[in-house]
Amino acid sequence: MLSALKLLTYPTSLPRARLPPTIDVPMMPVASPPASSSFPTHMLAVSSSRASHSAPNTPTAGSFVSQNSSTATLPLFPAHALVLAVHCTLLPQLPRSRPSNRTASLQLPVVPLTVPNAETFEMLHAYLHTKRADRLLAELLPPLANVIPPAHGAASSSAGRPAYISQFTSEGLLRLAHSLASSAAGHPQGALPALMGCTRVINGLWRNVCALGVFDAELWGVMDVAWEIVLAALTRAAERQRA
User: Fold this and answer.
1) Sheet hosting strand 73-79, strand order edge to edge
2) Share of the chain above pLDDT 70, in %
3) How many domains does one find in the chain?
């Protein structure tokens, strides 16, 4: 789907109060277009629920009902029903998308979707379509983006662990934590508030993953690694403040 997205032009957001049932997405003409199955089937308009930060709420069919009382804009994410069906086991069935015979544009159903944390939905959406664990970890811990090791092609290690997280040793995680703590020390509000911001991002992603029922070992491994790094960085920052 990623190659097909490069051929499409669509808005990044729409007003919640005026969400259309469908959206026409212009398609760039090319000599050899991707297969029709490569194109998105739906356009998700994502918003946050008001659930507790410690209680992920699973979407229901009601999550697909537009809330017309708000004037807020909702970010849009083109999605493929098959990808969501394979990975999001607790997501209700999407409205039917009718195949289009048009070559100049796609007509996609607009699906209002409420998740626990809309701010982190983009990184989950990207991971489900790319399976790039290294990019996800870099998004969770932006100050470490330049030192996070790249992902390799293997699906799992010889020990049965997801391949990407299997390369992290305890010593390596501690080095990353110290680097994160040092970076956070330069934050205008101080190291601890900066690191707590990282915990909120990880928590937001975790709530979305739980609510949608995503059981991907590499994804869960990345969240575990990120959480471990941040906790160690918090310990390091607290020790520096007491010194």
Assistant:
1) 13-15, 73-79, 42-48, 105-115, 22-26
2) 85
3) 2
